[in-house]
Amino acid sequence: MQLIYPLNVKNEFVFNSSPRDFTVEEIPLYEFTGEGEHLVLQVRKKELTTWEMLDVISNHVGIRRRDMGYAGLKDKHAMTIQYISLPAKFEEKLKAFSHDKIKILSMVLHNNKIRVGHLKGNRFKIRLKKVLGVQKDKLDSVLKWIDENGVPNYFGNQRFGTDGNNWEDGKKLIEGSLKIRDRKTKEFLMGAYQSYLFNQWLSKRMELSHLLEKFTEAETEQVLNLPKGSLKGTKSQPNFFKLVEGDVMMHYPYGRLFTVENLEEEAKRFAEKDIAPAGLLPGKKTKRAEGTAGLIESPFAEEINLNGARRYAWIQVTDIKKTYIEEKAHYELNFVLPKGSYATNVLDVLRGGEA
């Protein structure tokens, strides 16, 4: 899968996705009440998937995993701090809980079970190694660009399985050439295909933005086989990611969908980080792009028997902090991303992707 990134740079560094060099911490959507029938645990884990961690705790207290709540799935190859919930009656049993890869950091009562997506975002801590000499200055420069502009919101490789190709089974399920009985497995694989199509669409839009950096609107229309005049008003936009007529936008970081009508005005609002373009996860009951945006989106808008959605195509990276440890050649980064976004998008822009 070819993914295109906004900066044509090449930075060399080493990043190991390991608990020593990669930490992810959930930022709750709201404060917990301190009362109620549910117990919210702040849990630190390493070398386990969220499912494996839930199994360990559910087996300890003697309940089914489905009776527990969680806000998001976290990386196995990182140190992760996340929130889960279970019935408050198990508080005493949890005081005796001990595991070499799981630590319960805190417990607090709450009125509701935690649901998937009940997050503001995630805070990432990443250590880059072998950052030598001029590489440090180059990383500083790219990080400044990221702080000012944001990054594309590709789905990360972990969405596509160990071999990166589970979306192919999702496509076969949709085409009817593969049969799987288990509903959850089917929906997961078909969802991976939705994610693949989103990434392909985003790569096409990134290609358009790259072309407009180098060529005229008319030349870009020719390269992409778009109607004459369809990119009018795009090249002069202040953002790297260029909006086109008929794009679907969302208020940022939360809010309703709407369609671009005044290109100049919406590009200004995008530059001010008030709104952001929203790409298609194809399926049922989904708002479709119109006009030029609809033409570009059409090849990736397959009929899929799942509910579709719109997903931010461009996200902001906030609370960025960096430390350079010269004697170790370590470049340490802290930053916050919205929920559902991948730290690999920041790393890939820092490293320099395909262009």
TrEMBL record:
Q: Does the keyword Cell division apply?
A: no
Q: What is this protein called?
A: tRNA pseudouridine synthase D
Under InterPro entries, the record lists: PsdUridine_synth_cat_dom_sf, PsdUridine_synth_TruD, PsdUridine_synth_TruD_insert, TruD_catalytic, TruD_insert_sf, TruD_pseudoU_synthase
**Pfam families documented for this protein:** TruD (PF01142)
Please give the Gene Ontology molecular function terms for this protein.
Answer: tRNA pseudouridine(13) synthase activity
Residue span, TRUD domain: 150-332
What's its job? Responsible for synthesis of pseudouridine from uracil-13 in transfer RNAs.
Going by the entry's taxonomy, the superkingdom of the source organism is recorded as Bacteria
The family note in this entry says: Belongs to the pseudouridine synthase TruD family.
What Enzyme Commission number does this protein have? Answer: 5.4.99.27
Q: Which reaction does it catalyse?
A: uridine(13) in tRNA = pseudouridine(13) in tRNA
PROSITE patterns recorded: TRUD (PS50984)
Q: Which CDD domains match?
A: PseudoU_synth_EcTruD
Ordered alphabetically, the record's keywords are:
Isomerase, tRNA processing
As given in the record, the signal peptide range reads none
